[in-house]
Please model this.
Amino acid sequence: MKFELLLENILSDVEQANKTARSGAGAVGGKAITPRYVADTLKPGETILNFGAGVPDKVTGKYFHSELLRAKGGVVDEYDFGRNSTGALGRKYQTVFASNVLNVQSGPEMLSKTLNQIKDSVAPGGRVVFNFPTVPRYNTMSADEVATFITAVFKAEPMRVGGTRQAPLWEVKPAKSEVHPSLKTLKGSSIERHKRSVGKKVGPQIYVHKDYAGEVVPSDVLEKAKGILAKTNPDFEYNSIMYDTSNGTVRFDEAPDFDTAREPHVGDMVKVDKDGKVSTGHSDSIWHHKWLWVKEDYPGFDVNKSREWSRTWLNKVPEIAKGTDNSFMSQLKKYKVTDENIIP
Model:
């Protein structure tokens, strides 16, 4: 969506954040405290993500803060809400900074999502720098309340390195995440999330829970497909999305038992191709490794338990897992995966 149109149509929390993130005094320019602090403390060659970068200069096509940090020797990428065409959220950075971002989150839910996106972009041993100015603010939270959110997400307390108590500049170094041993089939193939972030990739197709679709599907493709779905099947409820990278198709899958079933079923589906053509269908097939669809913070089911179930049968079943309830159950019994706590 063009920035000018965004200014005229406040249609969502994302648009609100895009509209206001650069509007405060000192948000962009040499006086902006967040990028200035990063510039003063970075090391040459340091990888940096400008999170919530806004839109580039209309004349130069460049981002002021990013150019400032590049001049200091930083290697910088940009990301802004709803815009991830560079794939920035799929990579890890030594420093992630967010200038005038936390203050334009509409409430706790959006703040939590944003903080988790930032956390997932930080490399091990890296840091995050963000400010919380008093103007503008699109939530009623105090700086202390936001600091509590930060601590909960990063498992580390933010340290104030500038600003004031009411409008702080924070730096936080996330606690080292729990390391999960990699999963492999008996033939040695790795089972891991798409780009070590989120999603299950099968050939050109990527499967992902709807809550994380924006990190896998290009924003313009996703929004177009969702708009067509809303017009053609307004009452359709879905939990999963399949994105085909080879042809731009987006498929919305009902997955009615995604949270409750060990191997969820596809269910009803609505497919929107690149040209806007819509088709529907149904499948009773099951999915394996549903934890790949989500991140560690997903609240709908026990992600660790789901991953450990994958480990349990991967260590015993030498074949490709079958795609229906009965056929997969037969495989489990054939290879004596018969723990009564696992197989009903």
Observations:
- Residues 183-334 form one domain.
- The chain has two domains: 3-172, 183-334.
- Residues 219-232 form the longest helix (14 residues).
- Confidence is low (pLDDT under 50) at residues 1-26.
